Amino acid sequence: MPASPAEVPGATAPAPAPTSPENALSALPATTAPGAFSPEQARKDVPILHRTVNGHPLVWLDNGATTQKPRQVIEALSAYYSAANSNIHRGAHTMAREATELYEAGRTAVAEFLGAESPQTIAFARGTTEAINLVAQSWGRSVMEPGDEILVPVLEHHSNIVPWQLLAQETHARVVPVPLTPEGEIDQKAYTDLLSARTQLVVISQASNVLGTVPPVEEMTALAHRYGARVLVDGAQAVAHMPVDVQRLGADFYVFSGHKLFAPTGIGALYLKPEMAELMRPWQGGGNMIESVSFERTTFAPMPHLLEAGTGHISGVVGLLAAIDWLRSFDQEAVAAYETALMTYATQAMATVPGLEVIGSAAERIAVLTFTLAGHDPASVADWLDRDGIAVRAGHHCAQPALAHYGLESAARASFALYNTSEEVDQLVASLRRLQAAA
């Protein structure tokens, strides 16, 4: 086996939040200064990592699908529901004020986490998929005209393909695929050639969920802007693995999901460059997104409330706030360095498994290894690993065009996070080798 990744010095565990608070605001974890990092420290905070599956300790390698939640998030949700559950923005009583404060603190935390200009550039949604659809409907429907083009790289997740196909059908625009290189990178020459005065929008994943590819988003965005095109960056797979600065990226829109960031499901966020706010139109109507309503005339609330009709996922925002605070309590450069080392270790270790082929070899990648195993269907590989308590994903990963680029319909995927270890990689490799020996 290859040498284990070097350990990073550990940090003191963040203080646990009270479980029976009198005031939910004081119960939530406070933002701490970034400290040192070790995977063992992160693991101590995540209860589910200490359970067993089929008689074996859980090895969670399905982080690309969803990440597990630290106790700080779980306790924040409990504290909110125990002491501050209320609707927001429209109440004058104490709990309404507390809940509103928490919700808007979450918006501020997201803005700071993304390097956004202000909290007013952040709108909450159910996740990446809804945020993309929101942009398509709120901005795209009023902007796209017949003959306009939307450039979509082949590596994109279905949620960053299908909404644009639907918009193109409605507006008579065109979705133009941007091909990949054999390594699984976006073909930059083809991208440059495809850009034109007809290009209205470019969409790019900051990291691929199936190949792990990290494209040169900043450079691609700058080039698109030269043609007057707008750029939407899908950060679903990036936010848990690398620092994000939307202003440096130049993104007009940036979207992500909380559940890929150690937060609850059903919550995500959309960043809009300030100049884009003027171009957004109401998508859904209802409470919270209006200033006044009569049968003669309705006036709308300013951004970002314009895009948040109805009661939002308040507890989800509370959990997202706690998740961001937890992640930011670690030194982010140390986390990134550790994940890079773990990815190198896993790549070398999996190369020792007979008949195993990793899909994609981009120079810049997050810790995702999608693979096939000779003689075994990906679903049967995942089933075998599950018997040993190892959770991986099998299927098309909602990225069928990317797999089709390699002549595949499905594959297995091991995706890593900051709490995974080289010992877990060893268990994955040993189980795969047993599967091959049993064949």
From TrEMBL:
Q: Outline the segment boundaries, as ranges, of region: Disordered.
A: 1-38
- Fetch the CDD domains from UniProt: SufS_like
Its UniProt entry gives the catalysed reaction(s) as: (sulfur carrier)-H + L-cysteine = (sulfur carrier)-SH + L-alanine
GO MF terms here are: cysteine desulfurase activity; lyase activity; pyridoxal phosphate binding
Q: Which cofactor does it need?
A: pyridoxal 5'-phosphate
A Gene Ontology annotation in the biological process aspect, one of them, is: cysteine metabolic process
Please report the name of this protein according to its UniProt entry.
cysteine desulfurase
Q: Please tell me the species this chain comes from.
A: Streptomyces spectabilis
